[in-house]
Design goal:
With 471 residues, this protein is an alpha/beta fold. It has 16 helices and 14 strands. This is DEAD-box ATP-dependent RNA helicase RhpA.
Length: 471
């Protein structure tokens, strides 16, 4: 079996890995690290939780350690683009942890906070800059950041970038990069538009690494779908939490307003809960995550902003209060549990008007998710812990080949890309607008190609810098 010591990484990196207790690389790390260390471009296809951050961070840090030099003023040697603030922060922390013995300088730039701290952190330049596309374009427009010295460009979670409308902004950012550079491209799925973008960015004959089939769910996750009437979902969720086995649970909703409502309903029945979504300030989001990690709240209620980029140990369950409109999001949602080799459970609620979404999910994941009707089952809380088939209730298996008419099916299809939000209701996942120094920056600077509703950003500054640097 391959060990990190077999990959030729610099001694300070091996020491940092030993400090973290890591000895054996994951499949994507073992396949990607040698090629990236040699300077090759990389196209990586990997689902969430496979260790892909280390797959690009470790070889990048190895090359930085071998060729130490001062980065340009207001510039960087490595640029990593990330779709969300949370994922950007997590990537930055990984670079800092792995590079702690080589003196690497790291800055993280995202929207929703003031510009001052970000400008200060970038004044003398950094080795690694991790940024969200919208705020980076704002800095480029103001000439407070330059990309002329970028040696390695990493595009992470490319398919989520597509979902959030960031493809045009990414193409704008690439125009600021030098032509001679190394490109590392990562995506969990490879839809046509993402494949086209990869062809534009990568040099000829890139190293291609695919550790799992596209949109494959983690095998260690115990999945179940519970059929339930829409009006009974909150009561059903409360009953789930009667089971003490639901210790640390992420609950996914489709909209920001829905996340707040679900969190309040849990609090009303005595379940400690916190909500996280795009309308929360950065300070609120950080506090909610910190309380969830510390075990102060049992439930973190989130929109798909948390489907990627949240790496929290010991998440016992993922509950999908509403099924996602984009089938691939199901994979990323349940990937928040069963991390680092642990087991986990995922429960999805499915109302009658969501059955077409369930069929789409099963087609994409190429599996039939065990499903049964719990609307008349009084033993819900106890039975769902181990999730056996309930006595006296025949499993309602869903055949992806069939097509049965269901109430609201045509309306759900019509709303596939826009959610089930009421008119005027902002839908999570669309980029926010930037509004001067305090505005949100997770948004494209150009109008996205789709016509969906736009996420609001506003002046939700928490007063934090939105950046950290280990200078």
């Amino acid at each position: 079996m391959t060990q990190f010591t077999d990959l030729g990484l610099a001694a300070p990196l091996l020491k940092a890995l030993a400090d973290e207790g890591y000895t054996t690389p994951t499949p994507i790390q073992a396949q990607a690290i040698p090629g990236v260390m040699a300077g090759r471009d990389l196209q990586g296809i990997a689902q969430t939780g496979t260790g892909k951050t280390a797959a690009f961070a470790l070889p990048i840090l190895h090359r930085l350690a071998l060729t130490k030099k001062q980065p340009p003023r207001r510039g960087c040697r490595v640029l990593v683009l990330s779709p969300t603030r949370e994922l950007a922060t997590q990537i930055g922390e990984s670079f800092k942890n792995y590079g702690k013995h080589i003196g690497v300088t790291v800055a993280v730039v995202f929207g929703g906070v003031k510009y001052g701290g970000q400008m200060k952190a970038m004044a003398n330049g950094v080795d690694v800059l991790v940024a969200t596309p919208g705020r980076l374009l704002d800095h480029l427009g103001e000439k407070t950041i330059t990309l002329e010295g970028v040696e390695t460009f990493v595009l992470d979670e490319a398919d989520q970038m597509l979902d959030m409308g960031f493809i045009l902004p990414i193409r704008r950012i690439v125009k600021f990069l030098p032509k001679q550079r190394q490109n590392l491209f990562f995506s969990a799925t490879m839809p046509t538009e993402i494949g086209k973008l990869a062809g534009e960015l990568l040099n000829p004959d890139p190293l291609k690494v695919s550790v799992t089939p596209s949109a494959t769910t983690v095998e260690r996750i115990n999945q179940r779908v519970l059929f339930v009437e829409q009006a009974r979902k909150r009561a059903l969720l409360a009953e789930l939490f009667d089971d003490a086995g639901f210790k640390r649970v992420i609950v996914f909703t489709r909209t920001k307003r829905g996340a707040d409502r679900v969190a309040r309903s849990l609090e009303q029945v005595g379940v400690e809960a916190a909500a996280i979504h795009g309308d929360k300030s950065q300070g609120q989001r950080e506090r909610a995550l910190a309380e969830f990690k510390a075990g102060k709240v049992r439930a973190l209620v989130a929109t798909d902003i948390a489907a990627r980029g949240i790496d929290i140990d010991a998440v016992s369950h993922v509950v999908q209060f509403e099924l996602p409109n984009v089938p691939e999001a199901y994979v990323h949602r349940i990937g928040r549990t069963a991390r680092a080799g642990a087991d986990g459970s995922a429960v999805a609620f499915c109302a009658d008007d969501e059955r077409n979404l369930l069929r789409d999910i099963q087609k994409v994941t190429r599996q039939t998710i065990p499903a049964f009707d719990r609307r008349n089952d009084r033993q819900l809380g106890a039975a769902t812990a181990a999730m056996p088939e309930p006595a006296g209730v025949k499993p309602d298996r869903v055949d992806t080949r069939g097509s049965q008419p269901h109430r609201g099916e045509h309306a759900a299809k019509r709303n596939r890309n826009h959610g089930n939000a009421k008119p005027g209701h902002r839908h999570e996942g669309a980029p926010a607008r930037s509004n001067g120094g305090g505005g949100g920056g997770e948004r494209p600077a150009a109008k996205p190609a789709f016509k969906g509703p736009q996420r609001g950003g506003g002046n939700q500054s928490s007063g934090r810098t939105g950046v950290w640097s280990n200078r």
